[in-house]
Amino acid sequence: GQQLNQSPQSMFIQEGEDVSMNCTSSSIFNTWLWYKQDPGEGPVLLIALYKAGELTSNGRLTAQFGITRKDSFLNISASIPSDVGIYFCAGQPRRIANFGNEKLTFGTGTRLTIIP
Amino acid sequence: DGGITQSPKYLFRKEGQNVTLSCEQNLNHDAMYWYRQDPGQGLRLIYYSQIVNDFQKGDIAEGYSVSREKKESFPLTVTSAQKNPTAFYLCASSVGRQPQHFGDGTRLSIL
After folding, report:
1. CA of A100 to nearest chain B CA: how many angstroms apart?
2. Do the chains contact at A109 and B44, CB–CB below 8 Å?
């Protein structure tokens, strides 16, 4: 199965810095999702994007649905210690039937570490 | 509280043994999913079910089996045919066009 190209693979930053990460795909997606995973736990949904060009914020997090439908970006402003974890993007392809839940394709994750 | 419950948190399998991972949700979601996560990789879909008594293979279904006899439950069996079962297994559910929500996972190891 296809996996999205997510970058960077890891980031080491100082508290208070801004963070940017992105996902790219060779296929068009109808929906982009961003999740955060803490060690030993399941991913938690951060932001969902449904329209090309859409820019959505959730507190210090901002995500954008790329205009080509083949990429998405996540920014975190003024990072704090609890931002540490692995961030995953996920995409859903263009809907064919008007019901049901299409399969998600996940990126390989960006591991965020905050240096004291 | 509504949510997705996976059990056990940790599971050990002996050679040649089948083991079953539990996933229960009280969110009244129609669709349920099983993913496998290996270190440094994204989530890979094993099986999914959009409705009771129906399920489809995902990208890596070989060596796994599922059932969906009740809306709330979607157990995953890791069979002896799965030669590399050590991984973190995640269950998710969703309804309509809403995003998937995940349980806290089961870590399976080989004895």
Report:
1. 6
2. no
